[in-house]
Amino acid sequence: MSLIEVEDLRVTFPKAGVEAVRGVSLSIAEGECVAIVGESGSGKSVTARTLVGLTGQGATVTASRFDVRGRDARRFGPRDWRRLRGRFAGLVLQDALVSLDPLRTVGAEIAEVLAAHDVVPRAGRTEKVLELLDAVGVPEPELRAAQYPHQLSGGLRQRALIASAIAADPPLLIADEPTTALDVTVQAQILRLLAARRAEGTALLMISHDLAVVSSIADRVLVMKDGVVVEEGPTNRVLSAPERDYTRLLLAAVPSAASRGTRLSAIATGGVSLRAPLPERRIDHGSPVVEARGLTAEYGRRRVVDDVSFEVHPGETVGIVGESGSGKTTVARLVMGLMKPVAGQVWLDGSPWSGLPERERRPRRSVIQVISQNPLDSFDPRYTVGRLVAEPLGGPWKSRAARVAELLERVGLPADLAGRHPRGLSGGQRQRVAIARALAPRPRVLVCDEPVSALDVSVQAQVLDLLGEIQAADGTALIFISHDLGVVHHISDRVVVMREGRVVEDGHVDEVFFLPKHEYTKELLGAVPKLATTL
Amino acid sequence: MTVSDREPASERSDREPAVAVPPARLAADDEPGLDPVPAVPPAAPRTVPRRYGVRPGQVVALLFLAVIAVAALAPGLLSGADPLAADPLHALAPPSAQHWFGTDHLGRDVLSRVVHGAGYSLGIGAAAILFAAVLGTVLGALAGLSPRYVDEPLSRLFDVLASFPELLLAMLVISVTGPGAGNVILAIGLVQLPNYARVIRGQTFVVRRSGYVEQAVTLGLRRPTLVVRHVLPNILGPLPVLATIGMGTAIIATSGLSFLGMGPQPPDPEWGSMLAEARNYLRVAWWSVLFPGLFVTLTVVSLTAVGRRLQRRFEGRLP
């Protein structure tokens, strides 16, 4: 018997005027792993929540069939749902720090599930909590059970959350983006843990935007877009021989070693997707435009960057990869001259840069520009798009209009966007505005700090393509900081691998990623879920 | 605020890597040319976000303040009688068709005095707030932008000013400067100064560490340009709210000081001094006390109501 059987599920939010889910059919058999993939707004999370009666207030849910373990869930009241949650289906959400009560210890959180469903008698609860923490691979369970969520690392928190989700031993686990906020090595551990639960017979419904994560664990995949299932089938079939153009585009948009030198936003026609080549780039191997020698930086007494050296030539892309806390962003700030190194130097265009007083640096600021992860943060909240892009241009405000239109066109935005506020734009459009502004002073170096991390894969593809075009046309050098090894492999010529403020390995991107020498690089690469696809 | 600013519920529950990607995709971008294979019906148009109704009390408060403002600016429109004309024959006359609010112990028309008094209360309150807000903003921004050795003494100064009970500090100032409208403005302004200075200093800290100020540095803006263009405009947001609510406090303080004889001197029809003069006749002529007191109270309550509304709007709880 299937655990869940849903047909023609529709979820609307009448007040917001949104039809989030429009006719989804889904069944999950015992012990099966089903994945729903899709971009933001595709309705995948709403679908998952509806399955456990957590659609939220103001939602209208209809279905021609909605059976939970053979019982018609359309008649369920709040009490019926409460009994199901935890007992029948455990829920694991993206950010455990939000999902766990900050004022209660991890142990108390798990014990509550045990109490609510009367899993074990009161006397045995403490022991059961420790047993559960041990089962999800939390070292020193006694210590951890007594700690609060903020005292745990992201990985441990996610494990604790999984422990509370499986406390009542439910036959189904629903994981909504369970690894999205985690570093790649931690992600690999959590995925192993989920796979282990599956091996023990727990069914898994996994929600993700990441096709590679899904491919490593799911039996079946549903691809959702705009509230509709676009394609569904066995994971291997869907990922290696997709039938729908949307799936094909989604797969083609994933950056990797294979996609180097090509456009990610492919044209899908007649069942084949073609990645068009990007325009040729010329790298000038003469003198480097940015040269960092022995960079060292500290916050208080803590050394966050330790003896980092690299150089970037005109037209070249240097990737900097590492997990959170490895010092990547600090390197970007040092290169931008926003922070003074305690030792070492950055040379820009062959002359000193990082050690100068700001007054001397100012006239040369136009040479190097930055694009950050969250463009909205870097926009003055009062400014319109036009004003943001016009600010770096010299001359009277009025005469800059023509150049603004030109820059917007260059990044693929309509010129009439100039009067709009960035808040009303999509994430991809905002990042384009940030790029247009960075291009305004005609820089020779662009520092990109996680520029595509907050974007959906198809939007990421467009932004990466745009950067490639700009580089080819202007010969701009790129310093590309990312935690995503696929993105870095796609875009970089050379790569610097950082760990705890130090460079552990650097070299040509193919050399480093295909023949890693350092243990850490190997570990990092080993942890990346691979997308088994022919595209 | 546009429609696209508001995320539909489906997006909010979608736990994507938080930050951006709002739903309102605007044509041309982000949408790869797709196959029409799955019959996707067009999504329903988003309805305009619900406007929150203004509460009736807030409308009444605003209307009342409008009347008070007219009284302050053009008292002649509301009352023809001379507020200073004594008429001992008709002293302490109860409210009647001729004297709506009755007369006081010298036979002066209470309505006329209340109307003419609005100018004193509102004028002194507004002047004091203007003084506090301008000086507070300048000092607060200076503290927020300066290195520690400037910020520290300034902040301690704000702390000291704020540590005195308000009325006590105001009386202290007046006992040094002497009574009078100008000195009341100075006293109340000084008392209110730390409220503004502290908030502005805090705002300045937030703004100067913000991504867009850092971005402005990378664009090579000179510091004065940067401060004028990006810092100052962005720290002034809370001022209207603070000023509106502070105005109420200032009016109470003005009346209080006048009541104690430290404000405008009799026979000027200031509400507080009217109360002081009339309090001896409370048992025989309640109207000479009630109306000035009522107007102080209603003005302050109205200002607070309007201020709260502004505050909710500023904090983004209202569109």
UniProtKB/TrEMBL annotation, chain A:
Molecular function, one GO term: ATP binding
Domain ABC transporter: 4-251, 290-525
PANTHER family: D,D-DIPEPTIDE TRANSPORT ATP-BINDING PROTEIN DDPF-RELATED, TRANSPORT ATP-BINDING PROTEIN
PROSITE patterns: ABC_TRANSPORTER_1, ABC_TRANSPORTER_2
Family matches, as CDD domains: ABC_NikE_OppD_transporters
Biological process annotations from GO: peptide transport; transmembrane transport
Name the record gives this protein: Peptide/nickel transport system ATP-binding protein
Source organism, top-level taxon: Bacteria
Transmembrane segments: none
Protein family: Belongs to the ABC transporter superfamily.
One protein family per Pfam: oligo_HPY
Record keywords, A-Z: ATP-binding, Nucleotide-binding, Transport
TrEMBL record, chain B:
GO BP: transmembrane transport
Transmembrane regions listed in the UniProt entry: 59-78, 120-145, 180-200, 239-264, 284-307
Residue spans of biased composition, Basic and acidic residues class: 1-17
Listed name of the protein: Peptide/nickel transport system permease protein
Main location, first listed in the record: membrane
Membrane topology: Multi-pass membrane protein
Places the protein is found: Cell membrane
Alphabetical list of SUPFAM superfamilies matching this protein: MetI-like (SSF161098)
This protein's record includes keyword Membrane: yes
Positions of region (Disordered): 1-42
Organism this protein belongs to: Streptosporangium saharense
Cellular component annotations (GO), alphabetically ordered: plasma membrane
UniProt record similarity statement: Belongs to the binding-protein-dependent transport system permease family.
Alphabetical list of InterPro entries matching this protein: BP-dependent_transpt_permease, MetI-like, MetI-like_sf
Keywords: Cell membrane, Membrane, Transmembrane, Transmembrane helix, Transport
Domain ABC transmembrane type-1: 118-307
UniProt key word Transport: yes
